[in-house]
Amino acid sequence: MISNQDGLGWLDYPWERFLSVQNRILDLLKNEGISFSDVLIDRHYKSEKAPTRKPGTGLLTAYMNADYDVLSNSYVIGDRDSDIRLAKNLCAKSIFIGKDHPDADFSSMSWKEISAYLIRPKREISVQRKTTETDIDIRVDLDGSWEADISTGIGFFDHMLELFAKHAGINRRIRVKGDLQVDTHHSIEDTALVLGETIKKALGNKRGIERYGFLLPMDESLAQVALDISGRPDLQWNVTLNGQMIGEFPSGMLKHFFRSLCDSLGCSLNIKRKVIMITI
Known about the structure:
By secondary structure, the chain is an alpha/beta fold. It has helices at residues 15-31, 61-64, 81-90, 111-119, 155-168, 185-203, 253-265, and strands at 2-4, 40-42, 75-78, 93-97, 106-108, 124-130, 134-141, 148-151, 171-178, 212-218, 221-228, 234-239, 245-246, 249-250, 268-275. The strands form five sheets. The protein has a four-stranded mixed beta sheet, covered by helices on one side. Helix 3 (81-90) links the parallel strand 3 and strand 4.
C-alpha cells in the first residue's frame, strides 16, 4: 500500500487523526484475508516535489531493484491519476477505480469486475496465415462484446461468421483475401483452419470453460448442436440442405468448413438439422 498524505505528522494533520482511520481500514481488510507486506506513506506536500511522492518511485526502489520479473506483470490499483502515472513510471500495468481512464489498462467502479479481470487472463489472440491461395488475418477476443468485423469476399460467408461471433459471445475480426477467381473452396477451408487455431490459442489451458449444447428453433427449422472442446477432433454431420448455392456460397462447403474447424480447434462437434412440417 502506497499513499500520499500531505503534511502528515505536522500540527494540521497529526498522526493520531490519520491512524484512527488507517488502522480501522487495515483491520477490516485483514478480517477479509487481505494484508499488506508494506505500508508506504509519503508525508511531503506536492509543492516540495519529493521523489518519494506518487507518482515518484522513491519509496519503491526495493521492488524496482529486485532480482525477479515482477513489475511488468504487476498492477497499480488506485482512484487517482497519480496512481496511473505511478504504474507507468514503474513499467507496470494499471487499474483505475472509476470511469474510463485513457491511460489505464483497465477501468471499473466494481471490485467484482476488477477481481475477475485480475484472475482471468485476457483471452485475445491474433493469427495470420499466408499461402499461395489465401492471405488470412484473424483476431478473436473471447471476453468481448459480440462485435464482428468480417470481410471474406463471400457475402453469405460474412453473414454466417457474424452470427457465429454473436452466438458465441466474442469479438471477432476476420480479413480474408483468397483466389475467388478460381473458387471459394480455399477461402472457406483456410478461414476455418485459422479460426479454429485462433480460438484454440485464445482458450489457453481452457480453465473455466464448460461443455455445452443447445437447441435453436427457428420457424420451421430446428438446429441441434453439441460441442466438446476436448482436444479430440470429430464431426458428426446430420444435415439435409436444399439447393447447391446460398448466394455465392456452395452449400456443400458447410460440412467441410466445420470439419476443418474441428481439426484445428480440437473439438468434437455434433450438428443435426431437420425441417419440421406443420399442417393445420
